[in-house]
Amino acid sequence: MKKILLVILIIISFVSCRKNSENIKKVDDNKSVETASVFYDTVIIGGGMAGLSAAYYLKNKLGENAKILLIEKENRLGGRILTKKFDNDIYELGASFDYGNAYAPIGFQPSELIDLTKNYGYFFNGALYSAKNIPELLRKVNPADEHFFDEYNKDHDINKLFNSVSNNVKKVIESSFKVIYFGNFNDYVYERKEDAFKTYNLDFRVKGNYEFLDAYAKILEGNYILGAEAESVEHKDGLIWIQYKKSNKTNILKAKSVIVATPATVAHKIIKNMNEESEKFVKSVKYAKTMVVVFITNRPNPVDFSYILTPDKSFNCIATFYSVDKKRNIFNIYFTDSFITSHPDWKNDDYIKAAYNDFQSMNLVDLDKDLLHTDSCFWKEEGVIISEETYKNFSVEALNPLPGVFLAGDYAHWNEYKIPYGIPPAYFSGRNTAKKVVNYLKP
Q1: pTM recorded for the entire structure
Q2: Which residues constitute the domain of residue 278?
């Protein structure tokens, strides 16, 4: 009798596992409106750096038998990393910095690094100036302000300096600040304002940042769905239910835990009945917008600047790159939040036209003669505005809006450095949140 019961149990278990396997395939193939019998150990919403690092950590830590799924609304992974190609030229429409293997999967070997010049410029009142650092540039704008910089070197009071210098110097300070932060200078915490005096290394890899993402994609193959937009995250029947839409069809997933690795605005929209502390925090997170226009041209003459500040143009700065064979220039042109906000009706073509006209007036390259390729990308939520107002609402508890639901992303990585912005904070946030999930699942 015991043997008969054992055989029956094995058959039932086999049928149940087979049915569950079929349902998982239905999720991947999008053949089902509701996959109610499928449930996961962890579902990760968002395939940017935070989501990728969380999925990678969980897959390594929990093992191959763990059920982990990442869903991403775009038809690509990477979030703010967006690498494009024209002929053999690689260019970035999103994050431009070289991340090498610092934030890549173990064993990743990046392609050759192309060293760029460490010369910086600003174009102002029809003239192009150059220097090896920002303070040197600022002193050239208005030599009469020299004593204000001497005072700053003693007291390091950036607000006092900014309020003392001439308007032209203020414009260049703001332009330098917006090389990396696209919001308004006065909206940021004091520590970040000092970044206006920093310069940034734009050296790039032969294969661009795509190879960095491709390493994650290969490891996580079978564990993610693209083109799947999360619509809600809520508790029901002792599990967390995730509703998402793909190809205009609604699907349901169930999970023991969820990592919401999206911008704070999306997290606030999809997480239902989050606790008061979390809601207060995510509602206070603000983002700056940016527009990126790329011009690829023939290279009759080198443009030997890492980037050029352009405070009296429609765009804020020009980052300069070149093709590996050095036969082409690649210019990344950045419009910042204040300009975008003041032109609410502009479309991509309007920005391209403005970039073309202002760039042509600088006489760096003759676009009429040498332009080969144009591309652009609008980023609605390019980066977090790092303000005291937002982060007075931050707490570790605020990153846990529901039992088993955790927030991740650069905005969620707030520490003594006060830089919750960019790929490195997103990476650490994803990894640290994954550790929380492992502890949560242990019982």
Answers
A1: 0.90
A2: 33-73+227-284+386-441
